[in-house]
């Protein structure tokens, strides 16, 4: 992958992350439903989803801007997410669909991030 394609890939990764965060912020119950979770929200649930939303929007913005420290932090966070979602799938602590969709999303973000980092940066 050349540096220009790497930049485009990272902007796409950031856009996906930002979009997920925005949906979690505006309608956490809708995002929960998409991922096969209970859509009923109490104050604690909405608060947790909105914390997740802020995380995703910050990561998405930093990744879209090709901020190197954000890219590194994102890979560490995605690794933790993949471990958590894998454990959730194995233990059955969440619906199977939820764990599989979360693994797929985190895996796609991780793959895109790794490809973009391997492709380098324009001008380098």
Reconstruct the topology from this structure.
Elements (H helix, E strand, L loop, with lengths): L2 H24 L1 H7 L8 H22 L3 H24 L4 H24 L5
Helix pairs in contact: 1-2, 1-3, 1-5, 4-5
* End-to-end Cα distance: 13 Å
- Class from secondary-structure proportions: mainly alpha
Parts with pLDDT < 50 across at least 5 consecutive residues: none
Strand content: under 5%
Instruction: Evaluate the radius of gyration.
Output: 15 Å
Mean pLDDT: 92
Give me the strand/helix succession.
Answer: HHHHH
Global morphology:
globular
Largest sheet: none
User: Roughly how much helix do the residues carry, as a percent range?
Assistant: over 70%
Q: Number of DSSP strands?
A: 0
Q: Can you characterise this structure?
A:
It contains five helices and no strands. 25% of the residues are buried. It is globular and about 50 Å long. The mean pLDDT is 92. By secondary structure, the protein is mainly alpha-helical.
